[in-house]
Amino acid sequence: MKSVHLTRTRLFLLAALAALALLAPAVAEAASTPDRFEGVTVKRYLMGRVKPSIRARGAAHLWTNTGFSNRRAVYPVLRHQVLEDGTEWLQVAALRNRTQVKVWIPQWATHTVWIAYRIQVDISSRLATLYKDGKVFRKFRVVVGAPSTPTPTGHWYVVDRMRLRESWAYGKWALATSAFSRVLKRFDGGQGQVALHARGSLSAPVGTAASHGCVRFRDGDIAWLAAHVPNGTGVWVQR
What we know:
Layout: H1 2-32, E1 37-42, E2 46-49, E3 58-62, E4 75-82, E5 88-96, E6 99-106, E7 110-115, E8 117-122, E9 127-132, E10 135-141, E11 144-145, E12 154-163, E13 173-180, E14 193-198, E15 209-211, E16 215-217, H2 219-228, E17 234-238
Parallel strand pairs: 8-17, 11-15, 14-16
Antiparallel strand pairs: 1-4, 1-7, 2-3, 4-5, 5-6, 8-9, 9-10, 12-13, 12-17, 13-14
């Protein structure tokens, strides 16, 4: 009987260890994901530098307002660095043509913005999850890129929010992101920029993989997101 008891105890411990192993990645992700994300607006036009120095080569233009809706542009902060002379520089994400790049700007030329939201798009499940203060807030079924024109994976951000002018979704909402199609250089009059946008009259139902790389939402869902999610919000796309 003692041997049987010990065997059951070992089996219980093995099962417990296996369960902990399955939970570990989720716990690690939760621990590494902050409740809020830091972004900045710029007080005036800035040239983003490849290094934290005014003498370093310029790598991207940072504007006070966006090019679509003329709202304030918000740039996600990636790192802080204080130099020997006491000046502080920020490494931020910005766009250079069709590429998201990391550039340095002086902290004194910025205003800090704290962002409570993060959007995670899971391609395999065709599900977009909105996090607020580090917790799941809402979930949306979506249309993702077709196999021949996939939605690019990576960590992106919301560049701007605007109403569409295309006939298939005129007046409906879109959130332009810092991601660009890796297949299409130009599409629908643009440079292949990936957006989270309304389905409009497009026929593919949510839960399918049928877009040219953008992520399509039900019209009401994307309208809600556009009303609540600010520029600079992180968009994490994973398989």
